[in-house]
Amino acid sequence: MHSENATIKSRGTAEFLRRTLVYVKPYKISAVLNILLAILTMASYFTFPRITQFILDEVVVGAQMTLLLPSILCLLGAFLCCGLFNALRILVNSRFGQNVIFDMRRELYARVQSLPVRFFDRHASGDLLTRIVDDAAAMHRVLVDGIERAVTTFLSVAVILCVLLAKNALLTMFALVPLVILLAGTLWYTATAHRRYRRQRAAIGAMNALLMDNLQGIRQIKCFGRQAYEVGRFAAGADGVRRSVLSVMKVWAAYTPAMTFAGSLGMVLVLWFGGPMVMDGTLTIGELVGFLFYLTLFYEPVGRLDGLNQMLQAARASSERVFDLLDTASEEHAHRGVVPLKTPVRGEVVFENVDFSYDGTRPTLQNICLHALPGQMVALVGATGAGKSTLVNLLPAFYPPTGGRIFIDSQDISVLSLESLRSRIAVVSQDAFLFNGTVRENILYGKLDATEAEMLCASRAANCHDFIAALDDGYDTRVGERGVKLSGGEKQRVGIARALLKDAPILILDEATASVDSETELLIQDALQRLMANRTCFVIAHRLNTIRNADQILVMHHGEIVERGTHRELIGRGGIYARLSLMQSVDIEGGGPTEEKTLQSVSP
Ligand SMILES: Nc1ncnc2c1ncn2[C@@H]1O[C@H](COP(=O)(O)OP(=O)(O)OP(=O)(O)O)[C@@H](O)[C@H]1O
């Protein structure tokens, strides 16, 4: 995880602002209205010192009690306006903010969906989640609150400065002396804060990555009794966050009070030099109090600039992680194919001298040649790590081959659009991943617009209708995260129903290794027979008895096809397959298995 974050490019504030402001464009009117309302709120609030001064000087000292009620009503009206404008500002600001973050998250998630499978091999889901949820939120805060605060702050500083100068230029000079210290402090903070925020964001990403990984593996943790070990690992991650946040806060703790103190110096100086002015009659007491009120209003936004700066630096660090995601080339960018697969698709598949490597150096597949005729069943066998899954993963272009070509119906898949290619391939994987929704939603994943009748038909063909109908809420039963509420055999059949509904001419079937009872096994095999009928099937077989009737069996070893033929031919050859077959005690003449061992445990 740390290495992932180390690769994130550092970007300047100008790039941050340029790319972040793009999200405000569609909501220019809301943004302007938001600022306008903030200014009105501020302006109504600023009448307070002026009216107070009037009450003190004209009403109290000038003994004009008839003006008291109108003055108080004015004050009340100003506060009312202030509250009203503020309420409207909050409404506009919230809508504006939620629109911005909605757009950001939608764009980010769309980008995540378009990233190549290879990207997900290298990035932890928890870290990606942090970028979409937290980092986008930090960026949005700058746009929504930051811009508003920046405008109102600078405006109020400018307006109040004019008022102060108009009231008493000499006192204003004294009041502004600490501003030099404030500016120097701000510059120092800006220059040094960025790296601390980068570390903080990286630490949060790493902690979330660990958290997500652990929650997904909670059963393994319990099974191995590793709760204490994982608590320790999480504590190390959380400690990383604690230390990075503390390093930010340590500086902040010294910086903010120092800046507030510097601001207070202005008040002290004004009192020091203003007091004698009142005594010698060049200033009224009301004018001095009014001046001090305005000075508070001056230093309050000046102090807010520090908070704004902190927000900006945090958002800049977050934006680097967001832009890193947005700037990663999409699958379409790398694949480039746009041609649709010619229909009707017959399902002829050819691998022509295909090589592949995950890391660009160590070959995972070498010189793979195969020719599957439409409707044929091609079985892949071999020891674990031989490259069977890698081979089938090249067919839907999850990874591009590093050498050679792959054809479907004589069309090179590298020129085909991914959408067209993948819509013609169904995958039934070992773990039959189900989404955390209802059974119905999971089956319909194969064809979102399928009718109820089509769904029921697929479900019956997959031998899962009966168990689904017996569930409390039938097809509307929620299956839990990854389908946790269903048994392995049930999940597999829901997975088969989903693939049946997709009705693709090419099927990739990664046979489940987990054993199920023989009745369920029969139901699954029966469902699979229906699924495989009239499709070109690639079956990663772990038990040889299920592939005896395959049209071709390819035996893989260290990324190469070392034997090929039918079951009988390979048995007759007396090579690796025959040995594997013997070890699994498959009845060579076609009878049932007497003992089953998965190929995972057998090395050729
Ligand atoms: N995403 C990946 N990134 C890097 N290397 C990988 C990746 N997936 C697999 N490998 C490596 O590629 C080799 C082939 O793996 P593959 O999963 O294709 O084998 P397999 O024959 O399907 O094994 P199994 O039967 O156990 O599933 C292995 O050495 C594996 O470690």
List its salient traits.
604 residues; Rossmann fold; six-stranded mixed β-sheet; four-stranded antiparallel β-sheet; disordered C terminus; binds adenosine-5'-triphosphate
Number of domains: 3
> What is the CATH third-level topology name of the largest domain?
ABC transporter transmembrane region fold
Q: With helices defined by DSSP (H or I, 4 residues minimum), what is the helix count?
A: 21
Span of the ends, CA to CA: 36 Å
Tell me the structural class.
Answer: alpha/beta
Widest sheet: strand ordering: 6-7-8-3-9-10
What is the name of the CATH superfamily of the largest domain? ABC transporter type 1, transmembrane domain
Mean pLDDT: 85
User: What is the CATH first-level class name of the largest domain?
Assistant: Mainly Alpha
Strand tally is 10
Instruction: State which percent range the strand residues make up.
Output: 5-15%
Present as ligands are:
adenosine-5'-triphosphate
Tell me about the biggest sheet? Answer: 6 strands, mixed
Under the CATH scheme, the architecture of the largest domain is: Up-down Bundle
> For the CA atoms, what is the radius of gyration?
35 Å
Spans of 5+ residues with little confidence (pLDDT < 50)? Answer: 586-604
Helix content: 55-70%
The shape is elongated
